[in-house]
Write a structure and sequence with these properties.
Layout: H1 2-6, E1 19-21, E2 24-28, E3 36-43, E4 49-55, E5 61-63, E6 67-70, E7 74-82, E8 93-102, E9 110-119, H2 132-143, E10 148-149, H3 166-180, H4 199-218
Parallel strand pairs: 2-9
Antiparallel strand pairs: 1-3, 3-7, 4-6, 4-8, 4-10, 5-7, 8-9
Helix pairs in contact: 3-4
Pfam families: Motile_Sperm
Protein name: Motile sperm domain-containing protein 1
Subcellular location: Endoplasmic reticulum membrane; Golgi apparatus membrane
Length: about 220
């Protein structure tokens, strides 16, 4: 009886929430910089996760490191490049599926799907969101999607990804700025009192900055 109470409930396949940002990728044919997008996979759990990226149109995209692992309470950037920006692909919706599982298991504990589309130009963006008819058409188009693995493109080096994401750099700058602010209780300072930080807040900023530094060094 005690052994049954001590066991943790086994996760059901497909029941684990997967946290990915963004949930939609938009590529623009006339903007070379938009041909490379970054998906960030977050792992807020106390155990490591391994992931796999699948796609409905693998020949159109290059996924850097389509399989990998995420440490507990960490995140990983997945670089996706559009390889075929011909006009015949304008307006076509593809899907990426991120499957996650525990390191010691094969079954997918959770999955998250991200849509991807190619548009001619950012200047031709519609002024308002897609109408309900377009949303319905999109759901029908993607309802019976077949996903394929991106195994053919896993050999590309992560160095080509261009370094850390913009979000990582911005968080690092915020932490550095926090550490440079006066500590709460300092008298001789021209900085307004409301910008003085407590020692605990500065310790948190230093800890986050250390984590970001490790992430940057690994990219």
């Amino acid at each position: 009886m005690q052994q049954q109470q001590g066991r943790q409930p086994e996760l059901v396949e497909g029941s684990l929430p997967v946290f990915v940002f963004p949930t939609e990728l938009v590529f623009y044919a006339d903007e070379q910089t938009s041909h490379k997008q970054v998906l960030t996979l977050y792992n807020p759990y106390e155990f490591a996760l391994k992931f796999k990226v699948l796609c409905t149109a693998p020949n159109k995209y290059t996924v850097v490191d389509a399989t990998g692992a995420v440490k507990p309470q960490c995140c990983v950037d997945i670089v996706i490049r559009h390889r075929d920006v011909r006009p015949c692909h304008y307006g076509v919706y593809d899907k990426f599926r991120l499957q996650v599982s525990e390191q010691s298991q094969r079954k997918a504990l959770g999955r998250k799907e991200v849509t991807a589309t190619l548009r001619p130009s950012a200047a031709q963006e519609p002024p308002s969101p897609r109408p309900q008819e377009e949303e319905g058409r999109l759901k029908v188009q993607l309802a019976d999607s077949v996903f394929f693995e991106q195994t053919a493109f896993q050999t590309e080096s992560r160095v080509v990804s261009g370094g850390p994401s913009l979000l990582t750099v911005l968080l690092g700058l915020v932490c550095m700025a926090a550490l440079m602010l006066p500590t709460l209780g300092e008298q001789e300072s021209t900085v307004p009192v409301y910008l003085h930080l407590s020692v605990n807040k500065k310790l948190v900023a230093a800890y986050v900055l250390g984590l970001l530094t490790m992430v940057i060094l690994r990219t």
